[in-house]
């Protein structure tokens, strides 16, 4: 009987890190033309300046490359399972981001806009 083979997260880093920022993929988003995946914020920001894939250089779309993006929720769940604490860290950063912009938690774990009289 063979024992199960153990893998370290670093064994998978090539598959779960962003080519642009080099961090773990946050909101993994795939370019449908070439199937390369990046953090959503990284690829959207990249497409502000270029219509080309940052990894392979192909032109993604002549006028609106963002039309060729698809979120990969399955990959996101795999990354959150492989990297302990990443989901919680990202959720906390998102809460802090919105709080700094005058949003608040509404007691149900979601954020609401602060309305001033």
TrEMBL record:
Listed GO MF terms: zinc ion binding
Domain of life: Eukaryota
RING-type domain residues: 18-56
Keyword Cell membrane carried by entry: no
Major localization class: nucleus
Subcellular location as annotated: Nucleus
Subunit text: Component of a PRC1-like complex.
Purpose of the protein: Component of Polycomb group (PcG) multiprotein complexes; the complex class is required to maintain the transcriptionally repressive state of some genes.
Record's protein name: Polycomb group RING finger protein 5-B-like
Protein's organism: Salvelinus namaycush
Source species taxonomy: Eukaryota, Metazoa, Chordata, Craniata, Vertebrata
């Amino acid at each position: 009987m063979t024992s199960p083979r153990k893998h370290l997260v670093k064994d998978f880093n090539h598959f779960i890190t962003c080519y642009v920022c080099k961090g773990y993929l946050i909101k993994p988003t795939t370019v449908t033309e070439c199937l390369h995946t990046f953090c959503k914020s990284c690829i959207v920001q990249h497409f502000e300046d270029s219509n080309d894939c940052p990894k392979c250089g192909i032109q993604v779309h002549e006028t609106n490359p963002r039309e060729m993006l698809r979120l990969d929720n399955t990959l996101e769940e795999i990354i959150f399972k492989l990297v302990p604490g990443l989901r919680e860290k990202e959720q906390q950063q998102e809460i802090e981001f919105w709080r700094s912009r005058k949003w608040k938690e509404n007691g149900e774990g979601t954020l609401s806009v602060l309305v001033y009289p």
